[in-house]
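#structure-requests
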Amino acid sequence: KTEIFGLDISGSFLEIRQGLSFFKAEAKLGKKKFLKLERWSPHISGFLTKRIYLRGSYISQEKTVIPRPDQSARSNSIALDLFYFRNGLRNYFNLGTEIRNEDAILQRYDNRSESIRFRMLGRVRAIDRIWKYTVAWSYEKRDYEGDWPRTDRERYDKRRSIRMELSWPISDSISAEVYANLTDSNSTVSYASFEEDTAGFKIVYQWD
């Protein structure tokens, strides 16, 4: 069970949009509390040209892992996203990056991470239908402080993932979607290295 609360306040000044968002979540496993998240994020955004949109944000987050309090942490991040609209929201690209420092209760969980992500969304007409597609790629590297237990060396993680989605209408209110997600995680800690491939199909019903 997960309870989520979010709030976003924003406004424009000199054609630049500024805002502040707040997010809070509590997760339970059965009847026991498992995780709490609280995040504040001031952000600023605006169009550089008619097709290029830029958004920057600072993110302050507090994470509480109730059954494992040593992993609870505070983190500070800076994120930057660039959007290029080829045809409005019908076809656009998104390139983003984020740098984060996380300070945990137990020092060995302290880490610094850097990530980059790319998304492409669009629509094409074929067989008398509008097909919507999404292709997303991300890469993250994370460097932990100090030697990791039972390894006598520092922990260093790298993760790559690709997600592909394709949806099409069956009727005015029903659509179908297929998707695939490929993840490759490499780490100096053996149990944190893995490959995960998932694929799925779903039917979506919408009503006005």
